[in-house]
Task: structure prediction
Amino acid sequence: MADTVGADHAFFSTCGSSISVKTLMISVTGPEEKLLINRNAHKSVVAGIIIAGIQPVWIEPRWDADLHLAYPPGPDTVEEALRGHVDAKGVLVVSPTDYGTCADLKAITEVCHRQNKPLLVDEAWGAHLPFHPDLPEWAMNVGTDACVTSVHKMGSGLEQSSVFHVRGDRIDPAVLKQREDMLSTTSSSPLIYAALDGWRRQMAERGHELLASTLDLARETRAAIDRLPGLAVLGEEFTGPGKAFEIAP
Ligand SMILES: Cc1ncc(COP(=O)(O)O)c(C=O)c1O
Result:
């Protein structure tokens, strides 16, 4: 899996990204310690804060009052938050958001690494990103320290399929695995593991081809809907200064 997606280490989990994001959090942050987190995080992140006694430093997402949706924070916002909390143990960002809006992961990774802080990405909605260049940036390709994906969301895994990915030396994969062992079930489902591995193989062998036709289909569908009277498909409106860096089609 790691070879396929450009990570140094990867491993499967059968407890959903709800457990995987908590695992990431407690791999870098202890009780009473600070973690910078964007405020539109999934409820599993909020549960992780409560259970682990982490002190969250909230990073405000960019809120679009016209479209009523949130964009991930920009690198400037993350930099400012890090400057104000030099004792923070790291940064956790959700990208893509459930609106499909994506952060500038390369720039945020650079901001974090300038302060020698790990960037953790809740990439639950991004399991497909490594497999086609026309999709938004994949965390491992820009040197992000760790990310998790839910394969039942944007891949063909069974429910609760999740994958951990690690790059560099700010996150110790052995510690990550131990923390996962603390939180997850002792009765991992072989069905989930088998489906995950089948998906990994399918993506390694045919991911580019399958996603290319999916992207074509998405473009055609968007254009067809856009032609219907009274309907306009949003797209370009999501990106630009103060908005998302890019969107997942
Ligand atoms: C952004 C985000 N992170 C984490 C999760 C949790 O993932 P899972 O359903 O695999 O436990 C979700 C689920 O919807 C999510 O949207």
Observations:
- The first helix runs from residue 2 to 5.
- The mean pLDDT is 96.
- The chain is about 40% helix and 15% strand.
